[in-house]
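Dear support,

We are seeing what looks like truncated structure output for some complexes. This example has four components. We would appreciate it if you could run it in full and send us the complete token output so we can diff it against ours.
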Amino acid sequence: MSVQERKQRERADRERLIVATARELAEQQGWDAVTTRRLAERIEYSQPVLYSHFRGKREIIGAVALQGAAELAVSMRAAASAADGPRGRAAALARAYLDFALRNPAVYEAMFQLDGGLAFAQESTPQPLKDAFAALLENLEEVAGAGVHPGLFTEVFWASLHGLATLTKARRLPPEDAERRTDLLVDRLASL
Amino acid sequence: MSVQERKQRERADRERLIVATARELAEQQGWDAVTTRRLAERIEYSQPVLYSHFRGKREIIGAVALQGAAELAVSMRAAASAADGPRGRAAALARAYLDFALRNPAVYEAMFQLDGGLAFAQESTPQPLKDAFAALLENLEEVAGAGVHPGLFTEVFWASLHGLATLTKARRLPPEDAERRTDLLVDRLASL
DNA sequence: CTCGATTGTCTAGCAGTGCTAGGGTCAGGG
DNA sequence: CCCTGACCCTAGCACTGCTAGACAATCGAG
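Here is the complete output from our reference environment:
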């Protein structure tokens, strides 16, 4: 019995190691550098071991994305609860979101740009993703405005942040004005 | 002399054929399906011919992106000039932008998500890209608001649209509410 | 008209990718 | 102590972007 338990524990450890290593490698050298061979070498196992934990590379990306979503939710909630007033919370939320995207570009990519085989905006959507959206929703309801569906407002708010994050990351927007853009956006969207 | 001219013309024709075929294939089956082999087969030449026109796959993506930027600028200007009032022009612009992204997902991807080796927001930025941005700027100056730098406002407006476009395309947002989100966004951003 | 040079294109191949079939090793239970 | 089954690795498949080198067609000079 305890032998089986130990094996299960070791398997779970190894799975965490795979995800952590993939994330690390992606942040260091980009997702292109995360090949099954390199990943296998870093965890000091052969390639097929990866496939005994995940169906394929997509699922590994998905696992990193879920981890990131959980962290993003935590830091957004922390930022919001440290801010004063509806407007202040919205601004703090935006800053926390963009800060996360800036500090964890590869994880952000896994969450919202790459195909990690995850379902979004459905019942089957994994809990961490729902929760990250909920963290936005909770703090934006009060600035959505009268007669505006909070969910819809949150989607627009999120999409706008996402646009700023990705265009900045992809060097489509000059990085130096990032803060001014964020302020302007929050200023207009959170109109109350 | 005229022989050389004919050859140059044929080369230019073939280059256009490559770009058009790459675009078509990408729209039909996604950029993953655009391999140098498949592309070569479709234009009925061997692979190395591609490399006599472009440095590599990146440059082909870049060429598709430039074509798309030119078209996007045209349709945004057309939409804006058919609309009435500053607010109406902003709304028409947003709809034209999102409509383009929806109708040409692969081209949109080439422009703003994939690496086509193009420079953005610099002097060395190719003209079509500058021009597409200019088409936005021209029609948004009047709704930027007092004391708000028009360029900065345009960047924010563009980023928000980009967020809506990409999250919808990637099935991160429910497609059915797309129009309501657009209306809400324009409503808040173009506040005058 | 012939012959060398140049231009253009193709075949074949390299190093790398994600993924998998099959064999071998080692530990657990009878 | 041996057999069985779980586990992992080697080797390989079909594909990717890209390129070296051979070959053929065309051009200009004599």
